[in-house]
Amino acid sequence: MTQRVLTRLGRISPTAAFLGVGVLVFVALVLPGALGGLILLALAAGAGWLLAQTWRAHPPRARVIRLSILALVVLLAVAKLT
Asked: Is the dihedral of CA 62, 77, 1, 5 positive or negative?
């Protein structure tokens, strides 16, 4: 199943993926309180899963950058939840 999901994600245009995630982050930041935080946590969980599945494909420098962005999204989510 994991391979099937990754194959489907690979077919998505990078621009469409970027815009879609950008819209979700914007909506999550605008929504009040816990709802926005939960959306951000869901996005972080999805990004973390994707990062874990593609870990070997990225050079070490890209891994650090992606982990930093993931940590920032989790921190934003926790801030929205509190």
From this structure: negative
